[in-house]
Amino acid sequence: MDSSPFAADGVAHRRDLAARGVSVGRIRRAVASGRWQEPVPGVVVGHGGPLTRRQRWLVALAHAGSAGSLSHTSSLLALGARVDEPFAPRRAAGVRGAYAAPPEGGLVEVSVPHGRHLRSSGFVVVHQTRRPLHPRVVHGLRVTTAARAAVDVAQTADRRADVDHVVSHVLQRGLADVEGLVAETVALGRSATPWLRAAVRDATRGMRSVGEADLRRVVQVAGLPEPEWNAAVVTPGGTFHVDALWRRHRVAVEADGAAFHLSAEDWGRDLERQNHLLATALRLLRFPVRRLRSHPADCGRQIGALLRRAESLGSGFRA
Questions:
Q1: What mean pLDDT comes out for the span 39-59?
Q2: In whole angstroms, what is the distance from residue 13 CA to residue 5 CA?
Q3: What three-state secondary structure class fits 198?
């Protein structure tokens, strides 16, 4: 592999190679022979094999230019989020050109300032934006903030559950805070989707999981009083948080995620936590997220019945 004209990652734009004394003819011959490759017009990789994820990111950044940055799902991945690379074409507003996922991975998304008219190409999806990017550099890569990336992903989502997931995910992993999500949503103005606005409103109420958002919809549809969300309960074994708490009624409800698989150790800790909560005379209901979605009316009736029973027996619970 002739990698001498390239940096350590083996990716360079043609103009950078020219600045290093590499002629157009040499580039053409190396690409034609398969020693090098040009996955996106103008961007050259110094080998002919599959690209690593980092190399695909660097190719996309070279295509976007110094004013562009990784964005959307690609930015979240670079920041450490657990999300999947998109494979299906995204025909969002401001995206032009043709692109297709390569055999070794998915699409890479970048954003550039509006007016550059840069087209998507290869596996690179180019979004044009009127909002300032304010990129940061992480591991040598220009990326948008997690709050900006999450909001951008939410704007292109086809399902409300995906919007709830990306908002809760960046909050739970500490990649973004509620204030940042609110600011990015406000910056979108009228173009912010109703799903995004609802997910951010839920976050401001203290809800930090998809299950909590599903639980809140059950509470609203059933006409139940608004509980405290992500509420702290003080027990003899420590302070624990529950998804929803009607403190006066001594009633708490938790949404267990669809992927709620515990190891033996985790299961033991979960039982210990539950026992500490029940020791405070707290009435606790737990619903799988799948049931909250498939039978919301039934879940609402169960919660309502427990609240009415608690009301009839009196209260006085403090947590």
A1: 94
A2: 11
A3: helix
